[in-house]
Amino acid sequence: LALAGLALGVGTIVAVDIATASAQRAFELSLQAVDGPATHQIDGGPNDIDERIYAQLRTRGLPQGVSAAPLVAGYVTVGDRVLQLAGLDPLASRELGDHGGGRVPAAALADAALARQWFTSPGAVIMSTELARALGIPAAGHFELSVGGVAHAATLIARLPDAGPGFDALILTDIAQAQEWLHANGRLTCIDVRVPSDAARRQLQALLPAALSLTSTRAARALEHRETHRAVDEERAN
Q1: What's the DSSP call for residue 189?
Q2: In sequence order, which residues have a C-beta less than 8 Å from that of residue 212 and are 6 or more positions away?
Q3: Residue burial 40-62, b: 16+ Cβ < 10 Å; e: rest
Q4: Residue-level pLDDT, tens digit, the chain, 238 residues
Q5: Are 15 and 52 in contact (CB under 8 A)?
Q6: Is 37 in a helix, a strand, or coil?
Q7: Pairwise CA distance, residues 4 & 87, whole Å
């Protein structure tokens, strides 16, 4: 009985470790899908970023060759799964290049009807075909997601075939919709930027308020790894 108890305890610990590692890897792939060719992120720390700062950067002019796109990200629960939600501006993110954060929404929104739904329909989301199948959501299907225990209605307007493993735990929506669901009105999680040179990086850094930092996406991803467990545990607790 003692040996059986020990074996059961070890098996439980191993199972939890495997599940945690799998979830962390899924979130890592989701981050890579959204980051794409972005070389750096403008980060505001725990206070996020006032969206007016992004508007000022665009209107005053970014350094030569620098592209920028805002991102609102967080975690939602669908059924018993915790997923990453990414709120995008597809027109801005497309400037970063041919990648998950720009290419996929742009391709999905090539159809005029889908574009209208993306920008005008409350709760409109896009996800991979594999994720929709795993969640049991049909094409153009309605479903419910929750944030902090609060339920919200969502509608799947398009499924992305062959999107890759980076989209297995990722839901895409309009940036304004993500702000509403995540209670982040007027706030941005970060600003993805593509910086072509060290000179352009220094020029961009000089334009930023002191409260904001400019970090490489590799460093930003490492920080996200440390926050993943905390965010997932909080969402499950709610």
Answers
A1: S
A2: 42, 43, 44, 49, 53
A3: bbbbbeeebbbbebbeebeeeeb
A4: 888 888 888 888 888 777 666 655 555 555 555 555 688 889 988 888 999 999 999 988 899 889 899 999 999 999 989 999 999 888 887 777 644 444 566 666 667 788 888 988 999 999 999 999 999 998 778 999 999 889 999 999 989 887 777 788 899 999 999 999 999 999 999 999 988 888 999 999 999 998 898 988 764 554 555 555 566 566 566 6
A5: no
A6: coil
A7: 48
